Amino acid sequence: MSVFQSLLQRLSYQKANYLVLIDPDRKNDGHLNDLVACVNESGVDAILVGGSLIMDSGFEERVRIIKAASQVPVILFPGSSNQLTGQVDAILFMSLLSGRNPQYLIGEQVQAAPMVKHLGLEVIPTGYLLMAGGSPTAVEFMSNSQPLPMDKPDIVLAHALAAQYFGMSLVYLEAGSGARRSVPEEVIRSVAGELDIPLVVGGGIRKPEEAAGKVRAGARFVVTSTVLEQESSLPGTARSPGRTRRSGSAEASVHGEAEYARAQGLDTMRAFAAAVHEG
Ligand code: 1GP
After folding, report:
1. Cβ of 203 below 6 Å from ligand 1
2. 3-state class (DSSP) for residue 94
3. Closest ligand 1 atom number to CA of residue 174
4. Which domain holds residue 189?
5. Which residue is closest in CA terms to ligand 1's atom 3?
6. CATH number for position 214
7. Predicted model pTM
8. How many structural domains are present in the chain?
């Protein structure tokens, strides 16, 4: 069974799928195995890998590490055709339909298509709609395209229907990584109510209750990334007992900090997974 079919099948016993986006950039070096271990233990349905901008040449190696450690499907969520790799189970083959920049509407896809065929990747055709999340995001800048206004559901719906009529399998409503404002429930509701294909919602979702609200409004896939990197799973970024301990070796302190952060990461992912699955 394809990755996409298996994710759809999960919707027969849970309201939505929870996807964790891991940016295979250098900022996550040293944390990848911890992040994936948390994914494996927390009920996350799949991992997305990709980023708007990769700052070095380690992308493919990091994706390989993620794939080797993961017990759930790994799906490429590419920022450009440069990020193609065979170290994944499937690819979101996206067109940035919200923009009018031909490079991201069709140019990157034409460059990628022969390589996708050669790699034999499962393709999940996806209409990608960038929404104005309150501040300019990396994807907006890098794609040189204008996001859709959050307060104009009809415009969003028109784009989503265009994706459906093109035969795409998913519509992805993206507020942008770290967005101040996630996609509002009214917008999700009005689009989901008219669309026959599943909606993915991501960007700026910081609390499990917020994720559950997106599901109740009609999202069938919820994606988070920043909240997991910032608040929990990266040793050295979480507040931990290791930092305040006054006695014991520095090594033990660092180890305690890493363990604590990992436990925090696991709790966060479990809470999100439960909230998304139950809605
Ligand atoms: C995936 O861009 C999002 O669609 C991830 O956004 O980093 O804000 O969770 P966050």
Report:
1. yes
2. strand
3. 4
4. 3-278
5. 203
6. 3.20.20.390
7. 0.93
8. 1
